[in-house]
Amino acid sequence: MWSRSVPDLGSSAWNGLPPAKSQKLATVVELYVFTESAAVETVNWYLRRRVSPSRKSKGLRAAAAISVVIGAVLPLIHSVMPSWINAEWGFVFLALGGGAVLVDRTFGYSASWTRYARAGLSLRHALSVFQIEFTRIYTTVDSDSPTEVEIEALLQVIKALQEEIGGVVLEETNSWTGYLAESLEELTRSTVRHTEVSPRAKGNSAG
């Protein structure tokens, strides 16, 4: 069966700059190429990383939705056909639905999916602006004898992109670290509550 693969989002380097005759300007262009390559690699890393958690998140969310629907419908079926199925199975499916949501939240599939996509698209936008701005200034510079002001203007564009990349990566790393700590704390609280309730349930059944 023929299928058409849809190309994923990504970014690429811009290789349309004319060669620089000045050694100082050529050095700036080398720094531009280095910064652009690092930015392209970072953008594509974030956009690639979002694929796996996206699939897992969609699968868990679908499982949760289906389980909740089945859990809500089973008591109705039992009321119509009591001998066909036990209504208590509805609680089992509701628990499975809640478990799927808990797994998604604990392992952060939905959160990482949205964070990777947001960071990748934000960095891709910053890279596009950088490429346009650097090219705009570069094409007005005399490649034989650029002035210090022109060199400084090009360096400021490169510096702005480096700061933007570093800022987004640092923000995402800090946010992700905080999210993991909160998820582990929530999982610990849920486990403690469960272990506290279980002995009581056993004591009540024994009495």
Summarize the structure.
The protein is mainly α.
Account of the 3D structure:
- It is a single chain.
- The protein is 80% helix and 0% strand.
- The protein contains five helices and no strands.
- The radius of gyration is 28 Å and the shape is elongated.
Mean pLDDT: 81
| Global Rg | 28 Å
Number of strands: 0
Q: Uncertain runs with pLDDT below 50, 5 residues or more?
A: 1-7
Q: What is the approximate shape?
A: elongated
CA distance, first residue to last residue: 64 Å
Biggest pleated-sheet summary: none
Task: Tally the helices.
Answer: 5
Instruction: Tell me what portion of residues adopts beta-strand conformation.
Output: under 5%
Summing up helix and strand content along with how strands pair, one would put the structural category as mainly alpha
Order of helices and strands: HHHHH
What fraction, in percent, of the residue positions are helical? over 70%
Q: Which labels suit this protein?
A:
207 residues, mainly alpha, elongated, single chain
Question: Which helices and strands, and how do they pair?
Answer:
Layout: H1 23-49, H2 51-80, H3 89-107, H4 109-138, H5 148-206
